[in-house]
Amino acid sequence: MDFEQLRTFLEVSRLKSFSRAAQKLLRTQPAISAQIRSLEQEIGARLFDREGGKVTFTAAGRLFEPFAEHCLECQSHIHLAIAELERSPRGELSISANEATHLYVLPPVFAQFKMQYSRVILSIVRSERLRTLEAVLNREVDFGVVSLPVRDSRLAVEPIHRDDLALVVPPGHPFASRTTVRLQDMARTPLLLPSHGRRREQLNELFRTHELSPRVAMEVESSELLKRYILAGLGVGLLPRTNITEEERIGTLKAIPLEGVRLARDLALVYRKDKQISRAGQAFLEIASQAGKSK
């Protein structure tokens, strides 16, 4: 039995497919099947049922899974312990967040970290909120950055950033001359909304609370697209102030507060509570946390 067999076993169990596990591990499906057969022969029991095109655990496979996870964690701890013999943190950290967070929130955090810990490789993963949470829970990434609240008890949550949402309009829009805009007026103008996610939930709740039916012009997949469509004059929308700092500076967009309404956006760094964090990870956590406290 070796670590590669255990890694293959866990990948098949996670994906419930030999072919997808082969793609993930960059191997052929026969090679994956051979590893599982060899592992089953050594254990003396079948680990998966492969009937009807489905891959499911046998009783032995279900029993074996936590032991396989523990063995791979021990292997990871060995590598970490040896790496920690060096005074300076090294290795690789993976951080998942959505596109806007990577573009407008994390660059100064990454820059400060790399200035202090140049030997650590930062692997950047672009994913939406639910996929980021899933990746952290599945140990696919070390950290995620997502909007609050996060209610999963398996995750540690460290707030790192707060800003406000504002109504964003092009300079020629009738709202551009106002200092504030009433929510009722915003609801009557062509509105660009995110198609899903935490911010859409927040806006839906806002409209329900005030018994308003917004005039939705378009639903878009990302904050960056929403900003581009506002620039093109296709409507107005709500965006974090951080996302439009440059456009406000050069005058291509204007952010206007909503009258009597404050919509805050809180971002947090999340990671598994049961995960042993390397020195590099601890350093990144500290820098990100300090960045949030300094705002």
From TrEMBL:
<dbReference type="Pfam" id="PF00126">
    <property type="entry name" value="HTH_1"/>
</dbReference>
<keyword id="KW-0805">Transcription regulation</keyword>
<dbReference type="GO" id="GO:0000976">
    <property type="term" value="F:transcription cis-regulatory region binding"/>
</dbReference>
<dbReference type="InterPro" id="IPR036390">
    <property type="entry name" value="WH_DNA-bd_sf"/>
</dbReference>
<dbReference type="Pfam" id="PF03466">
    <property type="entry name" value="LysR_substrate"/>
</dbReference>
<dbReference type="InterPro" id="IPR036388">
    <property type="entry name" value="WH-like_DNA-bd_sf"/>
</dbReference>
<dbReference type="InterPro" id="IPR005119">
    <property type="entry name" value="LysR_subst-bd"/>
</dbReference>
<feature type="domain" description="HTH lysR-type">
    <location>
        <begin position="1"/>
        <end position="58"/>
    </location>
</feature>
<keyword id="KW-0238">DNA-binding</keyword>
<comment type="similarity">
    <text>Belongs to the LysR transcriptional regulatory family.</text>
</comment>
<protein>
    <submittedName>
        <fullName>LysR family transcriptional regulator</fullName>
    </submittedName>
</protein>
<dbReference type="GO" id="GO:0003700">
    <property type="term" value="F:DNA-binding transcription factor activity"/>
</dbReference>
<keyword id="KW-0804">Transcription</keyword>
<dbReference type="InterPro" id="IPR000847">
    <property type="entry name" value="LysR_HTH_N"/>
</dbReference>
